[in-house]
Amino acid sequence: MLKILIAEDDRELRQLFEHVLVKNGYSVRGVSDGQEALDAMDEEYFNLIISDIMMPVMDGYTLVRSLREAGDTTPVLMITAKDAFDDMRMGFLSGTDDYMVKPVNVNEMVLRVSALLRRAQMISERRQVIGGTTMECDSLTVTNENGSMVLPQKEFMLLYKMASFPGKIFTRQQLMDDIWGYDSESDTHTVDVHIGRLREKFRDSKDFRIVTLRGVGYKVVRL
């Protein structure tokens, strides 16, 4: 049974989320802040985390950053009363995978949880699918209705990373560090060059496009 950790200091809301998720077949544990969430993850494995932002002791931003800095890729759905773009941007840049604003439609929450878990499974299988496009890590191959194409390793890894989290914003520095490595002597302009090549190769794609967020970075969006 898939296990979900809920970090939410509002007891009634936490219990509502727990009830809905258990009803949908998940095993759930609830905690009231980010530090309790980290402690719980030391004790057992969770497939996904649902986290509020504003919590005592440790907030949601700090929780997610702590996980990502430690190399933990557990999917995180952030749920918060904050709906300003800057708050959402900060959430994604901290490493959040998806974002919902209160009041939450619990049926939509269940759908988003399911989508995040499917995506995580695909990543573990070294295979990613967006619409009619399939990306195979072991062969660096992208297949769509027009046929198959083997990409250079860096181009493939760049596309695969962004396609694994459609809609998620990645800064140039994040992509540089993850794909080229922290000790790379290249600068972030290298990312721009590779993005340009990918755009050219997949300009006719009916499944996705690469979007530039000026001054922030890039993301892949479904069509």
What does this structure look like?
It is a single chain. A hairpin with a 4-residue loop joins strand 7 (133-136) and strand 8. The chain is of the alpha/beta class. The protein has helices at residues 11-23, 34-43, 60-69, 85-94, 106-124, 153-163, 172-180, 189-201, and strands at 3-7, 27-31, 48-51, 76-80, 98-101, 127-130, 133-136, 141-144, 147-150, 170-171, 208-213, 217-222. The chain is globular.
- Which H/E pattern describes the elements? EHEHEHEHEHEEEEHEHHEE
Shape, principal axes of CA atoms: globular
Low-confidence stretches: none
Residues in helices, as a percent range: 40-55%
Portion of residues in beta strands equals 15-25%
Write a concise keyword list for the protein shown above.
223 residues; alpha/beta; five-stranded parallel beta sheet; four-stranded antiparallel beta sheet; 8 helices; 12 strands; 24% strand; globular
